[in-house]
UniProtKB/TrEMBL annotation:
<dbReference type="GO" id="GO:0016042">
    <property type="term" value="P:lipid catabolic process"/>
</dbReference>
<feature type="active site" description="Proton acceptor">
    <location>
        <position position="210"/>
    </location>
</feature>
<keyword id="KW-0442">Lipid degradation</keyword>
<dbReference type="GO" id="GO:0006952">
    <property type="term" value="P:defense response"/>
</dbReference>
<dbReference type="GO" id="GO:0047372">
    <property type="term" value="F:monoacylglycerol lipase activity"/>
</dbReference>
<dbReference type="InterPro" id="IPR016035">
    <property type="entry name" value="Acyl_Trfase/lysoPLipase"/>
</dbReference>
<keyword id="KW-0611">Plant defense</keyword>
<keyword id="KW-0378">Hydrolase</keyword>
<protein>
    <recommendedName>
        <fullName>Patatin</fullName>
        <ecNumber>3.1.1.-</ecNumber>
    </recommendedName>
</protein>
<feature type="short sequence motif" description="DGA/G">
    <location>
        <begin position="210"/>
        <end position="212"/>
    </location>
</feature>
<keyword id="KW-0443">Lipid metabolism</keyword>
<comment type="similarity">
    <text>Belongs to the patatin family.</text>
</comment>
<dbReference type="Pfam" id="PF01734">
    <property type="entry name" value="Patatin"/>
</dbReference>
<feature type="short sequence motif" description="GXSXG">
    <location>
        <begin position="63"/>
        <end position="67"/>
    </location>
</feature>
<dbReference type="GO" id="GO:0004620">
    <property type="term" value="F:phospholipase activity"/>
</dbReference>
<comment type="function">
    <text>Lipolytic acyl hydrolase (LAH).</text>
</comment>
<feature type="domain" description="PNPLA">
    <location>
        <begin position="21"/>
        <end position="223"/>
    </location>
</feature>
Amino acid sequence: MATLHKGNLPPNFDGQTLTVLSIDGGGVRGIIPGIMLGYLESKLQELDGKDARIADYFDFIAGTSTGGLVTTLLSAPDKDNRPLYAAKDITQFYLTHCPHIFPRQNCFEEIASALCKPKYNGEYLKDLANKLVGDITVSRTLTNVVIPAFDVKLLQPTIFKTTAAKADALMNAKLSDVCLSTSAAPVYFPAHFFETQDFKGYTRSFNLIDGGVAVNNPTVLAMTTVAEEIKKKNPVFRNFKPMDCNRFLIISLGTGAAKEKEGYSAHEVSSWGSLQWVFHNLKTPLIDIYGEASSDMVDFYASVLFHAQGFAGNYLRIQDDTLTGTAREMDNASEENMKKLVEIGNMLLKKPVSRVNLLTGKYEVVDGEGTNEEALACFARKLSGERKHRLAKQAQY
């Protein structure tokens, strides 16, 4: 077994493959991509040694909401300048902390929250984020991150990126603030306010909510970040062209969706007023719809783009669209439901690779591509090969 070189993934100056990991939003359902990541990292460790970590293999890790939290855990440095969390520990992180992030409420408390205030006060998540990453800023991540939020004062997305943070101190926010912002889902958590300051004393204010209202699946956002850096003539990307699918290797992880997209009938919702759209039968229809629509549209676009250029194999989307009952809820952190999500994640590994049908919106099995487990193992070999190629090039300089 080879010994893994510790440290960041070397820059890709010679124009080989750019590697991207994308993680959707979805609250407690982040358990599902956590299991995918644990398996992927285990295969990388088989190839390169027990110290291998996800951040050692990806040029960009993008995450929205709960995906932004996972992105931070995978890329924030610990005291030894290695990733804060191994991927295998992500699931346990959720099992330990989600019951406190999403404390159970009775029916009366839920209704009262819907009418008067956010469902949860977010204090546990705030304390947890501060404890985990403290004053660590976006510029210090071990690989490039892309984490979206939405500014309710400016009415536009705010994207936190390592590339931007290194260039502009006003965008170099604390990762704790970024985590609280990208996960501040309307109805569930309060909006998050903070300020940054540059070396000249200029400040910038942020009034942010969950990035999922704009982009719940950040796959294409990561690709456009590369395009932006190409436009800026960043030397790391000098040999790349925007949206050149031949040069991208992308793993996009969903957090699960409802079985057959079963939602509400037009007859049912036609009589709804504002309250029902926000809160109906202890569910949040409008929030759920925004998340589903955002994730699906990005997947549609990415699928078309990679298919059209003839490189469908460079894009792996793993999503379970068969969730039913409590598994569909983003904040059900009961022991029973979290156990169910772990089972769903493990079963998803065994399911065949599927791609979205661009006409029906449903995921359909792709013949000849094996299971998600096998596809992740294949991607692990590609990621390991790319890293070794760069290390060899680096040794020549």
